[in-house]
Amino acid sequence: MEEIRAWRHVFKLDPNKSIDDERLERLCESGTDAVIVGGTDGVTIDNVLDLLARIRRFSVPCALEVTDVEALTPGFDVYLVPIVLNSRQAEWIIGRHHEAVKQYGDVMNWDEIFAEGYCILNPECKAAKLTEADAGLSEDDVVAYVRLAQHLYKLPIFYLEYSGIYGDPALVEKVKQALSETQLFYGGGITTPEQAAEMARWADTVVVGNAIYESFEQALLTVDAVKRANEAK
Ligand SMILES: CC(C)=CCC/C(C)=C/CC/C(C)=C/CC/C(C)=C/CC/C(C)=C/CC/C(C)=C/CC/C(C)=C/COP(=O)(O)OP(=O)(O)O
Ligand SMILES: O=P(O)(O)OC[C@@H](O)CO
Ligand SMILES: [Mg+2]
């Protein structure tokens, strides 16, 4: 848990997208605190193993965000397990998890597995569509999920997810104010260092995904921006 607590900036690599060796090296050596491997669709054991082997050439901590048990493999430092709090389908809150623990329960090392309470706020993103997330939430709705995550379920991570679009910094601030124990991840639409710094004011951990594939040089600049924003806190 301590290692995750210290994460301020992370890159999320999608096994369903390609990145060349030179860029992967620059990403892993950028000073980011960790690399998360995860995506909603097209995640296979082959593309996960390929990324894992290539990331392992560097010393950056590496996490697998488990979205498909078929693509589970040993070798990651930690495993992050999404629970979509605002899904309309029990399958994405408890069902798939129950199946996975039935299959792997005997070999699981719980010390390296961390639940992420997701609240998905972009109704158009793949994860929202797959999980039938109720993304039309008011601020009060979101804060209620935050309180459930922290006080009732005692989750280590609350993940405010806007995957693909830049979110509302005022809401991130509100969410942070409701949290004391649970770590706040913010992810979605960060393409510039300025945006990364804005979200880092409130989020404990800023996640940069698509920008890696769409504006690589800008994505790299988010690392220092987050560092500086945290120094100013
Ligand atoms: C054998 C071994 C090593 C065992 C280790 C033990 C272990 C870790 C066991 C797992 C236990 C467990 C409880 C697993 C859970 C299984 C599971 C499938 C749960 C469901 C997860 C879930 C709710 C998935 C829904 C989708 C989701 C929330 C995805 C999040 C990622 C995300 C939004 C990524 C953004 O990328 P993408 O959506 O692909 O975006 P693009 O449009 O850009 O592609
Ligand atoms: O891809 P983007 O929009 O940067 O979002 C990052 C991450 O929160 C996705 O799970
Ligand atoms: Mg994807």
From TrEMBL:
GO terms for biological process: glycerophospholipid biosynthetic process. GO terms for molecular function: heptaprenylglyceryl phosphate synthase activity; magnesium ion binding. It comes from the Bacteria. InterPro entries: GGGP/HepGP_synthase_I, GGGP/HepGP_synthase_sf, GGGP_HepGP_synthase. Its EC number is 2.5.1.n9. It is an enzyme of class 2 (transferase). Keywords: Lipid biosynthesis, Lipid metabolism, Magnesium, Metal-binding, Phospholipid biosynthesis, Phospholipid metabolism, Transferase. Homodimer. This is Heptaprenylglyceryl phosphate synthase. It comes from Geobacillus thermocatenulatus.
